[in-house]
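User: what does the whole thing look like in 3D?
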Amino acid sequence: MKFSARVPVFDANVGVGHRHDRPAPFESPTDLLKEMDRHGVERALIYHVQGESISSIDANKALTQWLEDDRLSPQWVLGTDDDSLGQLRDLRADGRLNCVRLHDAGGSVPLVDWVYGESFDWLSSEGIPLWISLVDAATKEVVEMLRPFPDLDVALLGAHYVHASLVRGILRTLPRARLELSRYEVLGGAEALVREFGAHRLLYGSYYPRYAMGPMLYYLHQLDFTEMELAAVCAGNLQDLLGTGEGKLD
Amino acid sequence: MIDGGVVIDFHGHVGRWDTVGMVDDPETMLRAMDRVGIDRSCVFDIFHPDGTRGNDRTARFVAQHPERFIGFAYVSPLMADRVVPELERAVDDLGFRAIKLYPPYTPYPLDDPIWDPVFEFANERGLAVLSHTDTSRESQPMLLAQAAQRFPRARFVAGHSGNIEPARAQAIAAARRYPNFYLETCSTYRSPGVIEELVREAGADRVLFGSDTPLMDPRAQIGKIITAELTDAEKRMVLGGNATGLLGL
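Assistant: Here's the predicted 3D structure for the full assembly of 499 residues, as structure tokens:
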């Protein structure tokens, strides 16, 4: 009754640090790596959770303390503060930025062009993929905001069964969008998406520590995927998105 | 079975719920069950307040694979005069083995006397009552715990174990206090360490694996148990040992 991944795994969605309202169950890279080892996760793309709703600027500064081990790759948070884009441009100029995430878009700040347009233009022109949470923003806002940026690669995070009727439409409307699967457990849903859109549109992410790291990884190993599809969903697609892969799986 | 232990999914649905992608296709459900070693799934239809229509549908569903699915009776106090006759029919005629309640589809908290006929029926028959629980006014585990105290021969199962805090803490406290109170595991809130907490605080003999199939894929939900830091003996109890006893299988 033990489980460990049988393919290389690169988790596309791991938060580090304590949220203002939710302490994390780990305090150091060592502890995080121990949890990854328990499930057979080789690498993780990490962001600092203070960027979810408090400060992307501080979150990105704090993230640097978590990057000593090369199994942990940085993901920087795009915020609403005027300084945020400048911080990200500097990280890009230093060669330290190859993906960005946006979080609290649906909270106090609407996800609209007159707030995020300049940032999205920059991401699109630089070929930097964007992670965006379906948990925090209205789906309609997400799709309408992304539509004018057809060259922007996007990972949509945290789709739930409440999005079951929307997911196929989103993937059709946004051909460069990938669906991260941390919470998408509609019966047979992931297999149907692979049949319709191909495995290259899906990413394994745990959303740890918001959610446990193991269950969805176990789930992916029980789906009717080929080994190539499983490997792509668990790591290959993320590597491709970050520009470190060996080619896309059609 | 998994490693020789029977696996029973204590929480499953019959019926369609289109907007969330729930389709009760038995072949799809069985394929998922077979993939991870689930022997039997308990199912019920909560979409019809008369009870009869949904229970008949559940009976037809179970009849397609009676060795794999177990029917639970659903009744609602929205049609209170039908509750007891429908429970008698569902248990005596349809062969259902437990009762499912869903307070969010009613205005009645679980401590409202309108639920008492259900609890009395379960108490007389020694049946299990699986109730949805969460943080809402109607569905708080501490209200179900009051029923557990008042009706000691019935067994009460907190569906989703309250789902999130503070309802989860209520559910755990109830299981610690009342020997006829159990915790069921299905939830899309998969906070790290929750399964371990339920077992540690309530005891492995009081926790039941459930998935919410086909609303959620049982392969994902069973992953919570398999990947939890529990002993194999504890996992066996949670996955099916406890349910076998509770349902008299």
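In plain terms: The beta strands of chain A are 10-16, 43-48, 72-74, 76-78, 100-102, 130-133, 154-157, 177-180, 202-203. Chain A is about 35% helix and 15% strand.
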